[in-house]
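Field: COMPLEX_INPUT
Field: COMPONENT_COUNT = two
Field: RESIDUE_TOTAL = 637
Field: MODE = joint
Values follow.
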Amino acid sequence: MAIIVSFVLLGIGILALVLRRDLVIKLLALGLVNASSILFLVSIGNRPGGRAPIQSPGEIAILVDPLPQALVLSAIVVNFAILALALVFVMILVERYHTTDAQRIEHEMSQETDEEETPCL
Amino acid sequence: MPLILLPLLRFLIAILSITLSRARRPLAVLSHVVDAALLAWLAVSLARGVPAALTLSGASTGVGISLIGDRIAITFSALAWGLSLAANIYVWKDRLRPYFFLLMHLLVGACYALAFTMDLFNSYLLFELLTLVSFLLVGYGRQPRQIWASLRYLILSSFGMTLFLFGVGIVYAHCGTLDVDVLRPVVAASAGEPWVLLSAALLTAGVSVKAGIFVFSLWLPAAHARAMPPVSALLSGVVIKMGVLELFRLADVFPLRLPLIVLGSITGVLGIAYAVATHDIKKMLAFHTLSQIGYVLIGFGADTQVARLGALAYAVAHGLFKALLFLSVGDAAAHAGGSELPRLIEGKAKIPWGARIALLIGTLGIVGLPPLAGFDAKAILEDGLPSLGLHIVVWLLSVGTVVSFSKFVPFLFARSTCRTQRPHAWAYGWLGGLILAFWPLSVLMTSTSLCLHALGPMHLLESLAILLAGGGAYALVRRRLPVSLPDRIFHLEESPLIILLGFFLVFALLLVGAPG
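Field: COMPLEX_OUTPUT
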């Protein structure tokens, strides 16, 4: 079930990434796409009736696979870094062009010649 | 031991270079000396027939993270070392913020680690690190177009890497391991099964976004053309190659022969078409990066030992001449006042003589004049191609490259009035020397008999014929240039869709090539 949900989230994320012109929404969509991969990784480590992988001595229990859970920790950190840095660059662009619309930014940028370019900060 | 020391020492020096920012130049020298010694150590182990190998976290192979110093890994890390040295020399006297050096060290360290690792998830993390570092380096100048180019790069790379992560998940679910060596027999035993095709398509599509392949890496022309020259040189010369290296590793596990050949041909032809059509020389070089990756993919996809060695040698040769071209075009554009062809022709007297010689050597290298780097590597690659069809594609690409680089002729020769800055001259000398002396280097990378065969009369005649054909074709199309080709595909809206289409293409090709 969780695997299906992760693919649905991936689809929604891609749709938003393609269809929405607003850069902040695009980044949220990217966050959704990334989150879907994390959900997918966690769900493949699942065992029916499995418990959290913390084993007490002498106890025999069905545990979920701990490796994907360890992997997603790193993936979550990386995705956070990417979103944070991307938002900083979006802020810099907004300060200059006063819009978060990707098409308008691309249009206004194409109107500028190289001489008119000045550093943003 | 050197396998772990190479990346870790770079990361350590990266941190030191920002905390002790006054010592960043001695630290840069130190890092290159230490890396050279460690790389030599690895090369000696390989020459003795025992490639260095290490499994981290003390666990057995298949559970721990294994690192290996095989031929591919050492070649690509030596390329990273050589280009990092050139870039550091180039910016020796420039006034740059200390974090620039931090990023450069992190970039090279991540390249080393990526070259050695055999673990798919480890590769994912290192790719993401490379993405973040390259993103900051592209946007370093804070020009709006640089920022826009790097933002697009970040979004598309991250999207591609998510596809890769899905592939990693499927592989882990079925094999219980992510080690490439352990995966090989497991995947071979289940050849043609749906999960193999799906994971192979996801992993290939994800890596292709980073590897400079036309339908996937549509962020590349803007990012490489807009970045500072030393950054473009490193991105085009080595960072792109890390994606190619990962494709090499994946091709050892999954049946990627057909996808590599088709993607190689597509990226080669479309890259050349866009390169010929544009008059912005920096953009042209970026499009050529896309097209030149075509040779490497075709060589590796051809699946013969000789073609694979040729592809490896071509990847190194491309790294060298593309880095030299980006550095010298950047220098020329800074003096002439722009990288547009008319601007360069108009200001040709202002281009320093050093940049002019570097441009000439780089151009002769990329068009394949014997016995420079491009000729030698391409000849080895062609010797390994099994079918006439692949030979024809390679000839077409070579003629297209000559047509495109013929645009350099009008501004290459003039009386210079500007002197070359000394650090720039040293960087040109280092890279130009390697291009001129590529033949002995290729003996180290491949074998003496292959390299001697590459210098045969047939290859010499072929390269001269290609040069003549390309020059003639340029004379015919010159007046019709520049042509505007569709550029909507490079917009942020369309790119994710095109990456998805590319994924379906790879999946279809895998399906066609699957047994039964």
